[in-house]
Amino acid sequence: MNGAHLHLVVNHLPIVGVIIGTLVLIGGYLLKKEQVKLTALGIYIFTAITAMIANFTGEGAEEIAEKIPGVTDALIHNHEENAETFLALCIALGVVSLITFFLATKKHNWAKIGMIACFVLGLAGIFTGKTAGTTGGEIRHTEIRTGNAASGVNATPADAQQMDDDEDGE
Questions:
Q1: Domain spans of the chain?
Q2: Residue 151's pLDDT is what?
Q3: pLDDT (0 to 100) of residue 166
Q4: I want to staple 135 with a disulfide (CB 3.0 to 4.6 A). Which of 13, 42, 47, 79 is the partner?
């Protein structure tokens, strides 16, 4: 298993984790169940840990990806910038979740504010995670590069041949 493979294995966890955590938190509010809300906080803490692991494995993936034809420094840099924003948000979400978890188990009044903060950070995390994931996918998936799928711009020669074959009905 090389650095790129390891990164691909773990990088989806924080993106999916923040979505699931937010859905569970919403469920906790709808059901009025404190245990469900605490479960959401645990998911957010797990998400922060996996975001740090994904970030740690990114450098190894970059070393491999930058040698692949069609992969540009601009694509990698764009993903790095978005991933760093997502990482910072996930770490903040994890820290606020940990504090809120502690406050909630002690039945402290500030736990309600912490839950709201986690919800807001979770929503922000969904959007920043989507951007980080998309920019990461664009590195190797030419079909999702904005405005380029139909035209074949930035496609590899194999992608261009596949598009030609598709147009010919083969």
A1: 3-168
A2: 37
A3: 44
A4: 79
Q: Which two tokens stand for residue 30?
A: 């709808």
**Main-chain phi, psi angles of 74, to 5 degrees:** -65, -40
Structure token digits, residue 145:
């590069």
Phi, psi of 27 (to 5 degrees): -60, -40
Looking at residue 68, the DSSP 8-state letter turns out to be: S
Residue 153 DSSP class: T
- Please identify every stretch of the chain with a pLDDT value under 70, giving residue numbers as ranges: 147-170
Distance CA 114, CA 94 (A): 11
Three-state SS for 4-28 is: HHHHHHHCHHHHHHHHHHHHHHHHH
* Amino acid occupying residue 56: F
- Determine the residue type at 6: L
Structure tokens belonging to residue 87: 């990482």
**The pLDDT of residue 20:** 98
d(CA 153, CA 160): 9
Residue type, 132: A
